[in-house]
Write a structure and sequence with these properties.
Blueprint (H helix, E strand, L loop, with lengths): L3 E5 L5 H9 L8 E5 L12 H6 L1 H5 L18 E6 L1 E2 L2 E2 L1 H7 L2 H7 L3 E7 L5 H13 L3 E8 L5 H14 L16 H5 L1 H14 L5 H7 L7 H24 L3 H34 L4 H12 L16
Parallel strand pairs: 1-2, 1-3, 3-6, 6-7
Antiparallel strand pairs: 4-5
This protein binds flavin mononucleotide.
């Protein structure tokens, strides 16, 4: 019998729920479900300081220790990896998984599918994951991102509320629910059905196109614009914090500075720049924008097409 490994970390349980629904069409006997946990658990809810403190290590993709996990086989026919982005990078437990040779050796020569449970910014993180999979000799055959479809600012407020209180509820009763909507979580089984068919037929050619044909995945131009720029800035901040924050006290000061920088950039600077971009640049670069969106929706890893700081847009 063909075997599928499904492996992920989830802090709040949201990604677990997405994957549970995704797996509904599959035959249970074929699935080996593995949950990974960091040795030092991340707090949930987070304090504000803790939430921003994981930025440098997430962005620099540093390895953390995971609790040991057991796998029943060394030879899976399909590997499904769920993950969540942290600071436009794979979450620390996910990076740790890809830095574990016992795990990456399983990927060699195997089809790999990624399922993302994000706020709305997963493009940079997925570029890292594409590289991790490629370096392990795996073949990425599909990527299915689930996001909060509310506006960027509203979803930023609601995710902070959720992460800092642990309540996946409507902030002030005015804002929408945080995170991926119940509807999208339920609809994950639609993607599962397509993937299961491809798995049964062992025909992964065009799988990503079939997934995109559902029209449930779409990249907003404003998000693309931000992601094309923000990761480079995060990397600069990450290096400064690592270099200057040599004692706990100094690091705490730098993390606070980063926090204020991020809040100002997100809620004040980006909206102003986006007004100018939408009026003056977007109308003349629509083809370049669409090419970028097609690239990020695909499973291709192309160093030039994926150049995130290409100034065309
Ligand atoms: C520290 C931290 C940073 C995050 N950064 C991002 C991000 O850059 N982009 C994004 O779309 N979501 C971001 N999120 C949201 C997560 O990707 C994820 O959707 C949320 O934490 C729920 O995932 P869970 O299943 O692990 O609970 C972040 C969450 C945390 C805790």
């Amino acid at each position: 019998m063909k075997k599928i490994l499904v492996i992920n970390y989830s802090q709040s349980g949201q990604l677990n729920e997405i994957i549970d629904n995704f797996l509904i069409p599959f035959s249970e006997k074929q699935i080996e479900r593995v949950y990974i946990h960091p040795k030092n658990k991340f707090p949930f809810p987070w304090s504000s300081q803790e939430f921003f403190d994981v930025m440098p290590e997430s962005v620099l993709e540093e390895k953390i220790e995971l609790e040991p996990f057991n796998l029943k086989s060394e030879n899976y026919d399909l590997i499904i990896i769920g993950y969540q982005p942290w600071y436009l990078s794979p979450s620390l437990p996910t990076t740790a998984l890809f830095k574990d040779e016992n795990f990456t050796s399983l990927l060699n020569g195997k089809p790999v599918i990624t399922i993302i449970g994000a706020r709305n910014m997963w493009l940079n993180a997925q570029e890292s994951i594409k590289e991790f999979v490629q370096n392990a000799g795996g073949e990425l055959i599909a990527n299915i991102p689930f996001i909060d479809r509310n506006s960027n600012l509203s979803s930023a407020v609601t995710i902070l509320y959720w992460m800092l209180t642990g309540k996946k509820k409507k902030f002030l009763n005015i804002f929408p629910y945080p995170g991926v909507s119940e509807k999208d979580i339920k609809e994950a089984s639609k993607f599962g059905k397509i993937v299961f068919e491809a798995f049964q037929n062992e025909s992964y050619h065009k799988l990503q196109n079939k997934i995109l044909d559902l029209k449930l995945i779409n990249i907003k131009t404003n998000i693309l614009f931000i992601e094309l720029r923000a990761k480079r800035l995060f990397k600069i901040w990450a290096r400064i914090i690592k270099n200057k924050g040599l004692s706990n006290r100094k690091r705490a000061v730098w993390i606070k500075l980063f926090k204020y920088y991020l809040l100002i950039a997100l809620f004040i600077v980006a909206p102003i720049i986006l007004i100018f971009f939408n009026l003056l640049i977007k109308p003349f670069t629509i083809n370049a924008i669409n090419r970028k969106k097609d690239y990020f929706c695909s499973v291709k890893k192309n160093k030039n097409a994926g150049r995130l700081h290409n100034k065309n847009i």
